[in-house]
Design a protein that fits this description.
Order of helices and strands: HHH
Largest sheet: none
Distance between the termini: 97 Å
Radius of gyration: 39 Å
Strand content: under 5%
Helix content: 40-55%
Number of helices: 3
Number of strands: 0
Length: 119
Amino acid sequence: MSTIVVVIHILVCLALIFIVLLQHGKGAGIGAAFGGSSQTVFGSTGAAPFLAKLTAAAAILFMVTSLGLTFLGRQKDTSVMRGASGPPAQQQTVPAVPAPPAPLPAAPAQPAPAPPSSK
């Protein structure tokens, strides 16, 4: 089920990108007035109403699939303790006051090095 929703989500995402790139900006009408080509392929009103409705439908479908993927992802059991068995670990007790450190043994005295002899 999750794989189908992911595939639909990716297709809607690519369609939404393509539809938005097909649309003209707000200033496209000014450029057409000064020698630009006529946009009569989609009718006399242009592609704006059709592409605007298609964009809205794709955006709604994109949001629905996003929410669907979120809910599908939340329903999985993702506990880190799943499969752990056995009794709980014993708690170790720590003394309230630490014991004083034991004194270090005295190191044996090192003999002094002999001065160098000169001949």
